[in-house]
Amino acid sequence: AIHRPPLTFAESEAVDTIPNPCRGISVCVILFMHAEYGEFEITVEIESGVVSGRFPRRALGLVLEWCVIHKAELLADWALAAEKLPLNPILPLE
Is the CB of residue 87 less than 8 Å from the CB of residue 81? Predict the structure, then answer.
């Protein structure tokens, strides 16, 4: 996996590519989720599955499996978060 430094919420709060008519460029926004396990922490890009950080292999596999299963729900919650609305709960991996 490609490792990138985690983004702050301010860097990733929008949910799509936003045209900037003033400068004629687009800003690419990356949606991510954060996971912790003991002293380990990772950030996972929701769209690509790219991981930043360190995690035990088995726990990482479970987090990535959960992300794939619940990708649509994660993206829906990001849209809600961008509107500052309450998030919907997402079930844990069984």
Answer: yes
Q: In this predicted structure, what is the pLDDT of residue 14?
A: 40
Instruction: Return d(Cα 18, Cα 92) in angstroms, integer.
Output: 32
Q: List CB contacts of 81: < 8 A, sequence separation 6 or more.
A: 13, 87
Which whole-number Å values give the CA distances from 59 to 15, 55, 67, 75, in the listed order? 27, 7, 12, 22
| Ranges of residues in the chain whose predicted pLDDT is under 50 | 1-23, 25-27
Burial class (CB in 10 A: 0-12, 13-18, 19+), 73: middle
**Structure-token match 């995690």, residue found:** 55
